[in-house]
Amino acid sequence: MTDPLVLLVVGPILAALLPIILGLGIDRSGRYVALGLAGVQVVLAGWVLNRVLTSGRFTYEVGGYVPPYGIELVADGVSAPLLMLVALITLGVTIYSLRAGPHSEAFYSELLLLVAGLSGLVATGDVFNLYVFLEITGLATYAIVAGGRSSGAAYASLKYLIVGTIGASFYLLGVGYLFVATGTLNMADLAGSLPEVGYGSPLVVAAFGFIVVGLAVKVALFPLHTWQPDAYAESPHSVSAYIAALVSTAAAYALFRIIYRVFTTDFFEAVPLARQALLGFAAVSIVAGAVLAVIQTDLKRMLAYSSVSHFGLVVSGLAIANETAVTGGLIHLVGHGIMKGGLFLAVGIFATVAGTRRVDELAGLGRRLPLTSGVFAILAFSMVGVPPAIGFPGKWNIVVGAIEGGEWVIAVVVVASTLLTLGYFGRVVEQLYFAEAQPLENGEAIKVTDGSGIDPSAVKLAVVVVAAVMAVGLGLGVSELVSAYEPVLEVYF
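RESULT FIELD:
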């Protein structure tokens, strides 16, 4: 029987062909293909996660070729929860898109290809194969962003294409240096070969620098973030939510794997400047992203710059390089995907009903859309780090890890960024609940059905409510997530 781990990658690739083929004869077939595949992905990811939790780490050799010559897929306590995250968010966004759009067959085909790329990024145990999935993810994202069909969407997609290609080229150049130095591309094999070459070797140091910069572009760390605000702001609401929740998340996870599975903490001990440079890079991104978010008037752009800041938090946890901080970074990686995806979907409802995304034009909307506004507030305060939601334990562990590692400046930066996060989200909540109410541009939208007797806004709202419930529930049950991480992190520290 074919292992569910490989089906998580192969299934979406094959399914991506169906919307285009079936669409030639069956109207709107893509939505049913995407919805069915999303459900299957949840089942497969659940199987993989359950096996990891009960039996521990396992691998799959593609085609039966044993590493280091064959391609290896890996499921462990870190990758399995992320595979589940990809599957759940795919299902949620697909359901949301049934009412919100886009409805084209091309959109669903691109979405399924993106699912394959993200799943492969998370599961692969080979640095070149990671590049392949990075490119699949990038190409699908460029296309799906351009699906906005406006001049702004075309510009955003082109900018992302150019910047993303540069980032991928940097990554591939670093992989080339690693291959020249060691003669292998398998992550586990590289970890054993690099000490023999020497961590201080110019080839190894250059490889680390190129790979980190390349992935930092994909993560959207400041100042390599320039593609992100336009891509998020100009995309359809469903697309913005999906790429905000998962694309940079998968890239940040890839950075974690490269640092700890390939280079290991021994590299940081041998080349301390590399760790300090990465830490400084992350700290600048935390502050710059938060400051830029504060001054935005467009909700989508505010959330985009918020992501720049919060991925800086994740990378700072990785760069502090002790178990507490890395645990915090990984917790926040999962939490951010849920929270930010839910926030973008809520903004989609605001924009549809109120006819605006401007913060200063949301006055009094909390009284007109109480449930949507309440869920937005829950997700927003979770991003701030208010317990018991998932935004709190990630930040807490990063701060404690920074103190344990003597990185007091980072601890102060994280706390300061939390206050800035409260500032820009607090401004939105103030407009929703305490400003004078304005008439809705599309006041009847929440009462209109699509012919099936189902209120489109109710379907979209249900997805956002589930995101908020997951954010709070995962915060309450974060110990289970930490327990899954422990066997992996114990190997690295």
